[in-house]
Model the fold of this input.
Amino acid sequence: MGLDFKDKNKIVLYAFILGFVLLGLKLFYLQVSKYEYYNKLSQENRIRMVNIKATRGEILDRNGNPLVLNYPTYTVSLLPFEFSPTEEVVSSLAELLELDEDYIIERFFKYHDKQYSPIPIKRKVDFETISILEENNLDYPGVLHEVDPIRVYPYNKMACHLIGYTGEISVGELRERYVEGLKAGDWVGKQGVEKHMDNTLRGRDGYKLLEVKVTGEVVGQVEGTDEIDAQPGADLWLTIDTHLQMVAESVFAHVERGALIAMDPRNGEILAMVSKPDYDLNIFSSLISDTIWERLSSEETHPMLNRCVQGTYPPASIFKIITASAAIDKGYITSDSKLQPCYGSIWYGDRYFRCWKSSGHFQLNLIQAIAQSCDIYFYQLGLRLGLDEWVEYTNKCMFGQKTGIEITPEMSGFIPNRDYYNSRYGRRGWGYGVVFNLAIGQGEILVTPIQLAQFISATANGGRIFKPQLVKKIVPVYDSPKISKPLLVGTLPFSQQALQAVRLGMIEAVNGEMGTGKGAYMEGHLVAGKTGTAQVPHGQVSHALFAAFAPAYDPEVVVIIILENAGSGSAIAYLVRQFMEYYFQQRKIEYATF
Amino acid sequence: MRRFDLIIFVTVIIIALIGIIVIYGATYPSSSLALHKKQALFFAFGLIAMVAGILIPLKVHYLFAYYYYGLTCLLLSALLFQPGEVDRWIDLGIINFQPSELAKLVLIITMSRFLLDQKKHINSFKIILISFLMTLVPFLLVIKQPDLGTGLVFFVILIVMLFLSGVKPLYIFVGVSTILSLIFAFHWIAWAAYFVLLITIMVLSRPPLKLTAVTILGNLLIGILTPFLWNRLHEYQQERILGFLDPGRDPFGTGYQLIQSKIALGSGGITGKGFLNGTQTKLAFLPAKATDFIFATLGEQFGLIGEIVILGLFLLLLYRIVKIAIESRNTFGKLVCTGIAAVIFVQIFVNIGVTAGIMPVTGLPLPLISYGGTSLVVTMFMIGLVLNVGLHRWEY
Done:
């Protein structure tokens, strides 16, 4: 073999020399060939990094109707490298921009350690103020302004929760997302679709390096640097239908606290979504969003909470659908089966379990039991199923987990199981009676309205569980649009006979003489529905729930309505009717126009 | 005492003293920090370390090599369990100690011993694989910190050590080729050109057919899979990776520093602006101007001439070290010396390369000059080792 140790060391030495020569050449280029240029830069001029803001994508409804628009305004910022917070400058700036002096100083010192990154101090500055700044720019060294669009919401409060608001990136978010290229003063989605789809909507800022004279005059771009264009964010087309959303909002006009979801059971698209109380999105368009947020979130009614995905409620009698289907599926009963008659209560273990109707329902079959929501009937089914089977079916119906809808944050609800009761009450500390409560949807169980919408849609469409979807289309500026497809995430663990029996029960509930949901009856279209009355602790009035779909044999819309502390499910059936009437009326108009 | 290499000794002292002066100039006028005084103190410690390096018999390092290695890995992993964010310092109260600096030397010693012991089967796949894994452990520990620069230095050590101990250059090339393939895979023309080159080299050097097949297939696989996997990442994930590999992409942080560093160098011209007259240095970027970007402040004040003097001193130092390596009869000593020369060289090249804008920002110190106690003391200890080998160069 050729090389001995001496040769190898020589090769290493030659490599060293080659490296030094390379460095020398580059240094020669910088310091001799480009000397004049760099010398001039270092003596006369400064370099300013100019950020080119990417436009945030707009949000439209399914028909291209704008829900969120951008409106051009100016933002005034401080460049820490050039700005020095002398009393004189700060006070005149404060006067001009109508800001507090302390506020300016506080903002400056909060972010000034990133020397070259401008700190926005006021958004929505009008053109007049900007021209004053421009004329006197020598008095305001390091004060910059740039065109910076703000979010505008033509419908104010409408769909505020699902859209969500945007705000200046917080220190915590900045630390977390710094590597994604975000910087102080950036505007990001804070809730709802705006937050969930932030990376799609935001786009990417561009930048350029400008040579700036000491007088503030811009000479031009620094040689040898490229201007990096901003990449605008993509537009989002939602599945929401503005007209239907308006209908839903007007149905909910007098509701104080509650949630409404309308979903297309054929593909999981969300057509309308309302959460009450609500707030006007336009108040978040300025820099002071922190204080507004604090005020809003400290209110007792929690207007910031999107009850459709964050609110958790006991599903109450709506869960009788699961209990019934599971019992049929297991072969314990058929739709004609009659169990022990209801005399208002039933003795089990060491206590009575009551039916909501103290005078009793007497002998019922399954269809009637669903329609009249007889608790005694379902206690007996719960007992036959047992806790573990019931929990297994409920989990297979995808309760207790997030649906993955494009809204952040989302809650997952809670399905108790054997382990939970053992750890909570001790191995012998709980009786089999818990399954009585669970069978009628009461007890420790919690679900979100969006989970109910997903489940009822699957019940209506023959068992296919679609992921609830809010984004219909992503439309990038320089790329072809991406259209989202319905996403099948599972199937209900029930046979078609079981689902058919439930459907009959739900039709009977709305259309039968004795049905609990009679108030939702409408002419011309067959509505199926199930009421729910969720008991709440501390002697408060119950939550009222209603789940419905129509037309019953060819469902194209599912509606979930929950009103907090509004009494029984029967009492809110009229809201479902109102919504359905509007829905079919509007559909007629749409068909007529095509 | 004729065997004592006085040139190395004097050169090192001169470079370190220049370092202290440049640190003073870099932090002037805000020298309230008194970094230069601290560095002078570190220099005193460094002299002690150097004497220790000369006095401790080389045999001791040979015997304890694996203990050093284990201890260093423990220290590096201790960083990961420190409270707060992961970084590269261990807080010892007054002094901050940076284990990754020590790791560079320890890896040289460990590799030298291992490869020397395995000299007979040096070209076996098993030995090469083990030495690769020995490098990988500290590499993974430092890139967690995150300190990609130091991690890459470890691999340079591996490559140089393998080359010196007689592993066929072709095998080393095969190993490196996977990384090259990964880099070139981002553009298909570049990758195609690289692939043709690879095949040519493989055919010309006539290795066993199995090796050729594995190499070419492996490269092909990487070349095809990389763009595919890359495109499947989200944009922000890609951004994360690129930001990790090249922090200069952040235009408002490191990127801006780079521009300033180029202006500082360029405006220094041939003769420089004079000591303490650097305008860029005074205005712009603290704290890196005394550490990672110190060469820019040097260039601004002393110009191309000053830089050539420094580079000349470094080259002289490297030459003398390699000379000792060639003359020494002790193979362990030979390997250690050239390894040390390689580590010093890589740090010089990367540090100045970053400052001049021909490499991504990696945060390696300029040996003997950058502010930093651990780096100075460890480097001077390395020089002590070299002088030690030089003293005993005729002993086996």
